[in-house]
Structure formats: structure tokens, C-alpha cells
Write a structure and sequence with these properties.
Radius of gyration: 21 Å
GO molecular function, one term: hydrolase activity
Distance between the termini: 34 Å
Strand order of the largest sheet: 1-17-16-15-2-14
Oligomer: single chain
Pfam family, one: Ape1_N
Keywords: Hydrolase, Signal
Number of helices: 11
Strand content: 15-25%
Protein name: SGNH/GDSL hydrolase family protein
Structural class: alpha+beta
Shape: globular
């Protein structure tokens, strides 16, 4: 890391404890993102009813994203204001301790799940892949009505030279569709058009010698907003570097996201042997890879939220419990990368109320955080997602006025 960068990090590290004491609405800050004004124009056109386009938002993160509570609080408000363009991109199958706020997944037969946090192989965007046995199937049951025309896109790849099978989809209106088998071991997309029917399920069934599943995308053919939540419990930010570079390029070019949100840092804060120079380098590389794969997209970095530990090493900052020893450094590096790479930035800890806020959240009635002082309750995620939405909309209102 350059000496000048280290100097900036040192200054920010000294200022963070003072800045985090200022409770209230933490504004989304624009450090010069070249694409955000395009987002404001798109949203304004949708709000006026003058656009038939879809504004696509993708959030990558750890368990705070993998639970889809925070993201759904943001998603629900965005879709109410600007239009609902569908469920969007969901994890390809059930993953333990994760959920979707939009669909319930039920899986029958044998599935071999691979997760990027522990196994650096050929991963798609999101870092989860599922290989079924022949005849295995998945039911995708929407939690909200999905009506009207829609498109279902399936990302898959040949897991071996013996892969010959495609996918069979039963749409909510009862129509059955066949998808051709993938042609190679690179991730590729197939899609079908159909119609929704209230809350009837989608069924995805594997043929003989099935392909590996790497992504499911359900879009309605209507203008509005989608918010894709692709999180992995326990993930650190470097998980993005385990996604196959060709998949990152091809999948993001296909999806054409307008806004990418990165929400990591909690697991880095609890890392027993942190390497801050490696973290800085990995975060910078991830941002640049995403920028290259989706050059039209604005990028927003969410700072790690406040957390604490009841036992073990940590930093005493005047709270009952210590904060993780690496938390301040992680937050400092995140903000520094946002400045240097010209991103948008939202200070989640500041929005919570500062240094001891996770402990106040846990003591609230009803509780807003769990007793692990890391994760939030459903009410807590709802509050944080709503705070993020209000901060984002505040900046949108300023941006559409040219301020």
C-alpha cells in the first residue's frame, strides 16, 4: 500500500470514533461515481410514469444480505415508489441459515451445494452452485402474488463431459417448458416466457445427466425496480474474487445492473488474524473487477455496521462490551476505497447511532439486535433497511434537482 494511502487511512482512523457519535440520518455520500446521475434520471422517469425500463439493483454481501431482511425493507419501499419489476435474481436453491423474503424454496431429491466462501472453484455470480441428481426437483413458491407475463432465466453449466440433460420448468399457470442442456462447463443462460398466476409455484426439475445450477432470475415484463439479494452467510468480501472471471463478466453484462451494492465487513472485523493490506487490495480489486464487468453501473459501498463481543480480544470504546479489534480498521479501509475509487458510501454504524449502538439495539424492547451482538432481529433489519432507503431517497431527490 502506498505511503500516501497509509497516511489517509491513519487520519480517517483517528476521526472515525468522533464521527460515529453523530446519530441521526447517515447520508449516502457520493465520492464522484460516474454513473449515479444516470440512476437518478431513470428513477425520476419511472416515478413520473414516463419510462418502460427496469432499474436493476444487485446487492452482494454476507449474512446481513443472505437473510434478505435488510434488502427487502429497501426493496419493498423502492418498488412501491417506482414500480415492481419482479422477484429478480435469487440464490439457486436453499442454503442453510439463509432465506429469501420473496420466495420459499423446497428441494426434493439429492442436491450437492457448493459455496464460494470455503471452496475456490468455478463459481457464478453470488457464489452458490447446486448440482442435482437425476430427477431431483425444486419448488419455488412466491410469498407474494406474481401475475401477468414474466420471464424465467436459468444459469447453468455442464459439470462434466457426461452432462447431457437440460431443465424442465412448470410455470405457475401450469404450462411446461423445456430448456436445452448447456453446451460447455462455462456458465450460460437459458430462459422461457410464461405467465404468473397468483401464488402458484414454479417447479424446476432435472433431467438425466443434469447440469449444475448457478442462478435463477424471475422478472415480470413491466417497468419498475428489482433488488437482487445475493449474500452468503459467513462470507468476507474476498468471496467476490472466487467467482469465475468469465462468469462475472458474462452474467453482469447480461443482467446490466444499474446499481451494485457491496455490504461486507462484519466477518472481517472478527477475523482473528487480519491482514489489512490484503483486505485493502482485495476490496480494491473487487471494485475494479465489478466496474469492468458492469461499466454502466454505479457502485455503492455500505460500511460495516456496529458490532460487539462479550468475550475475547477487542477494543474498549466506552461501551459495556468491546468492539471487535479489527472493526475500526475495516470501516476506515472501506471509506478510503470509496473515496479513491469514486464510489457512493453509506455509514451503517452512524445510521445506528454510533459506537455502542448494537448494544443499545440488543437492549431495546422489542430487541433490534440478537444477543450475539452481531446480527439484527427482523425488526432491526427492517429499521436499518428503512434508514438506508431514506438516505438513498434523500440523495435521489437532491440528484434529480442537479444538486
Amino acid at each position: 500500500m502506498r505511503n500516501s494511502t497509509l497516511s489517509c487511512l491513519t487520519v480517517l482512523f483517528l476521526l472515525l470514533p468522533q464521527l460515529s457519535q453523530a446519530a441521526g440520518l447517515a447520508q449516502v455520500v457520493d465520492y464522484g461515481d460516474p454513473n449515479i446521475h444516470r440512476v437518478w434520471r431513470q428513477l425520476a422517469a419511472l416515478e413520473r410514469g414516463e419510462s418502460k425500463d427496469v432499474l436493476r439493483i444487485m446487492q452482494f454481501g454476507d449474512s446481513h444480505t443472505g437473510g434478505d431482511y435488510f434488502t427487502h425493507a429497501f426493496r419493498d419501499r423502492m418498488q412501491q415508489r417506482f414500480g415492481n419489476a419482479g422477484i429478480g435474481w435469487i440464490t439457486p436453491g436453499y442454503v442453510k441459515n439463509q432465506r429469501s423474503a420473496q420466495v420459499l424454496m423446497k428441494m426434493a431429491g439429492n442436491w450437492k451445494t457448493r459455496i464460494a466462501r470455503a471452496n475456490p472453484e468455478n463459481f457464478p455470480v453470488g457464489g452458490v452452485a447446486n448440482l442435482p441428481d437425476p430427477g431431483a426437483y425444486m419448488e419455488i413458491q412466491p410469498k407474494f402474488p406474481v401475475n401477468g407475463p414474466l420471464r424465467v432465466s436459468i444459469w447453468s453449466r455442464r459439470s462434466s463431459d457426461a452432462t447431457t440433460g437440460g431443465w424442465r420448468i412448470v410455470m405457475p399457470d401450469g404450462e411446461q417448458r423445456e430448456l436445452a442442456a448447456p453446451l460447455s462447463q462455462d456458465w450460460q443462460v437459458s430462459y422461457v416466457y410464461g405467465a404468473g398466476n397468483e401464488q402458484n409455484s414454479f417447479f424446476l426439475r432435472a433431467d438425466e445427466a443434469p447440469a449444475e445450477l448457478g442462478g435463477i432470475v424471475i422478472d415480470t415484463l413491466a417497468p419498475g425496480v428489482t433488488v437482487d439479494a445475493l449474500g452468503v452467510v459467513g462470507a468476507m468480501q474476498r468471496v467476490i474474487l472466487r467467482w469465475q472471471p468469465e462468469a462475472l463478466r458474462d452474467q453482469l453484462r447480461w443482467r446490466k445492473p444499474d446499481l451494485l451494492i457491496l455490504s461486507y465487513g462484519t466477518n472481517e472485523a472478527f477475523d482473528a488474524k487480519p491482514d489489512f493490506e490484503a483486505y485493502y487490495s482485495d476490496l480494491q480489486t473487487s471494485v475494479r473487477n465489478l466496474r469492468a464487468a458492469a461499466p454502466q453501473a454505479a457502485i455503492l459501498l455500505i460500511g460495516a455496521p456496529n458490532s460487539a463481543r462479550k468475550t475475547g480480544p477487542g477494543e474498549q470504546v466506552g461501551c459495556r462490551y468491546k468492539i471487535p479489534a479489527a472493526l475500526r480498521n475495516v470501516q476506515t479501509i472501506q471509506k478510503q476505497i470509496a473515496i479513491e475509487e469514486k464510489l457512493l458510501y453509506w455509514d451503517w454504524e452512524k445510521a445506528m447511532g454510533g459506537a455502542c449502538s448494537i448494544q443499545r439495539y440488543a437492549a431495546a424492547n422489542p430487541p433490534l439486535a440478537g444477543q450475539d451482538l452481531i446480527h439484527f432481529t427482523e425488526d432491526g433489519y427492517e429499521r436499518s433497511g428503512a434508514d438506508f432507503y431514506e438516505s438513498f431517497i434523500h440523495m435521489y431527490q437532491r440528484g434529480r434537482k442537479g444538486r
